Amino acid sequence: MPAISPCEYEIINIESDTGEVIDLRLGVVSFQYFEDLFSPTVTAKMVIISTSGVVSDNKTRKIESLYNGLPIRGGERMAIRIKGNSNINKGLQFDTPDKYLYVSKISNVIRDGQKEIFVLHLVSREAITNEVTHVNRKFQPYSLIDTHVKDILKNDLKVKLNRYVGNIDSASNRYGFIGNLKSPFQILVWLASKATPQTQTSGGYTGFFFYQTQSGFNFRSVDSLIRDGLDGRTARTNFKATREYTHKQFTDYIKETGDFNILAYSVSRNNDLLRKLIIGQYSNFTASFNPLNGKFSKVEEGSFNLLDILNQPKGKKFSTLGDIPEVPTLLSDDGMGLGELPSRIMSVVKDVGTLSKEASKYQDQSSKPSQTQMEALVRYNLLFQQVVKIVIPLNTNLQAGEVVKLNFLGAPEGSTYDRQQSGYYLIKELCHAFDTEQSITSMTVIRDTFGEFGQNTGN
Predict the structure, then answer these.
(1) What would the pLDDT profile of 379-420 be if each residue is shown by its tens digit?
(2) pLDDT value for 200
(3) How far are the Cα atoms of 161, 339, 420 from residue 330, in angstroms, in the given order?
(4) What is the Cβ-side half-sphere exposure of residue 346, based on CA atoms within 13 angstroms?
(5) Does pLDDT of 52 surpass 70?
(6) Helix (H/G/I), strand (E/B), else coil: 311
(7) Structural contact between residues 396 and 87, judged by C-beta atoms closer than 8 angstroms
(8) Which DSSP string do the residues of 14-67 spell out, in sequence order?
(9) How many whole angstroms separate alpha carbon 176 and alpha carbon 351?
(10) Residue 273 has pLDDT above 60, yes or no
(11) Chain-centre distance for alpha carbon 84
């Protein structure tokens, strides 16, 4: 069967707090499953059509509708298993205790005679646990950031080891803090912006993502996501078979030969120059104050120039998805480059170890605000040089944070590909959508450069 064909709902069960279980398979009109690099939890949305008289009230012996009879008020547990519809699609499975989804909200309830329609909004168990958990203990300044992440996942969110093992990148910097009654997700996302990856070669720039996919929780650096995705070109023999999509003028998607065609796409962002100047993408300056000795940082310590980073022969380098990032030159008589003068000036107070009696002992090992803030600012924003939304036939193998290769036509009726637009993209967010007529995957993909991969020596 082609990947766009409808899928079979094998299990769609909802369980109330009384233990009553109702099979919803015949009432599901559509099901949408979401992942996002910016979301610490997976979400889903299900449209239900139900006839009245499906639930019996044991006390009154009265037959009730599903919405009021069960009743559905939020917090109900759902077991979901959707069968794959092609050789490449494994389907979706949320039918085990550690992967059950839970009802977070009910919306758009409509009654029409003997029929009722409503929408169930679903989240993972950890999303609910997060809202009733507050972290208020001390995290030692001599521990690496990824150690804190594992600690919070295990002891606060009660996540089983198999739901995050192998998905936590090692950090090279140490950081101490107090929970201050913040929720686990707040702290984990906050730590992601402070973590610097630990690699064996040229290192990496500050900037992690904390997010959840169908395979579990992830704490991954931007550079490692790109490196792992590009390494898959040779390490995974099936990369082309499951990760490469081509836009064609005439898409024959009703046959299996069209499973890897791009059905539709639109470019949401394509190098917003003014925005990049406002955020200091090309050049910025950070003045930092050290409360331990009462001194400000030197000018050279707080200056950042993207062009210098790209041209340096040794040291840290960006891992990119294509050609070397460009720093525009202003078209004027003097030909001034936009990276010569800082377009943003920031100030921070250094964290030199206020949690320890020996404040100076860990100041070199703690997070260095001036450096990490500059690195994270550039690393995150550089990743959004291009933002493209695409729709493809269903591929449930794809997850947020993975790399796909996209080939776009160079002209409306051309046979060659656009070598600037085509190339490797990182999946920022995706939606696997199922209904009675078709199954599709829609994605927002991002990229940090123009041009095809292969010219950047930092990769």
Answers:
(1) 888 888 889 999 999 999 999 999 999 988 876 655 677 878
(2) 47
(3) 52, 10, 21
(4) 23
(5) no
(6) helix
(7) no
(8) EE-TT--EEE-GGGEEEEEEEEETT-SS-EEEEEEEEES--EE-TTT--EE-HH
(9) 9
(10) yes
(11) 23
